[in-house]
Amino acid sequence: MLMPLDKTWGLVLGASSGIGRACALAMAEQGMNVVGVHFDTAAMRDSVARLEEEVEAYGVRASFHNVNAARKPVRQEMVDTIAELTDGAGLKILLHSLAFGTLVRYLPGDGSDARLSQRQLEMTMDVMAHSLVYWAQDLAAAGLLPPGAKVFAMTSAGAVQHLPSYGAVSAAKCALESHVRQLACELAPHGVAVNALRAGVTLTPALRRIPEHGEFATQSARNNPHHRLTTPEDVAEAVVLLSRTSSSWITGNTIGVDGGELLAAGASWARDDT
């Protein structure tokens, strides 16, 4: 049975741009109040302010915080804030969409002496994977993941594909998917569903930071059976759709939201413009 989302609360980690931004707006359109956590420079201040205004224009509450979601003290403060905002009722949606990781190759190459450092790898794993576990732990301990809540973590086909600069992020995505499966089993008795969403190639600020993104995006659009890239709005639609149920029976999965892109990768017919 599909349930309304109005008057519930959603938490978006990585809310200021790309998929996180689109999901915040989609939640608001459904009548959800939105807590947005982002970590940006002053240059993004106006953009985030506009986003907050757009969310509130749907007649819902918006509470945006420019803080580092991967830091323990910040997480603890935000859990207290969420408890106060929701009057202890907790969240309907937790979306983990943190995209901050290193894009340095493991070994020197292509005329560069740079190689991945231990600090860079650990930072990438902590922000893009392990932080999901810590947020779920703290929210669950505070009683803020009630039965029917949905936890989503953004992954990508990069978990199983190779790009020269994507190694550390790929490893983090693999770990993230593993964390999703474990959390799904441990939260099942509480009626909470946990899934990874594998978005197709999407032109977000995070993608544009990848050195090879131009050629990769062109090929992905050509391969996709829909002959276009995934948009943030495609992913936001999936988040809303999957959240409109009290059931926790769809859980522990990596769900493709890519228009069939991964299925068609490398297929000659998908690249046939005729």
TrEMBL record:
Protein's UniProt keywords contain Ribonucleoprotein: no
Pfam families: adh_short_C2
Source organism: [Actinomadura] parvosata subsp. kistnae
Family, as annotated: Belongs to the short-chain dehydrogenases/reductases (SDR) family.
PANTHER family listed in its UniProt record: DIHYDROANTICAPSIN 7-DEHYDROGENASE (PTHR43477:SF1)
Protein name per Swiss-Prot or TrEMBL: 3-oxoacyl-ACP reductase
Keywords per UniProt: Oxidoreductase
InterPro entries per UniProt: NAD(P)-bd_dom_sf (IPR036291), SDR_DHRS6-like (IPR051122), SDR_fam (IPR002347)
GO molecular function annotations of the record: oxidoreductase activity
CDD domains (UniProt xref): SDR_c
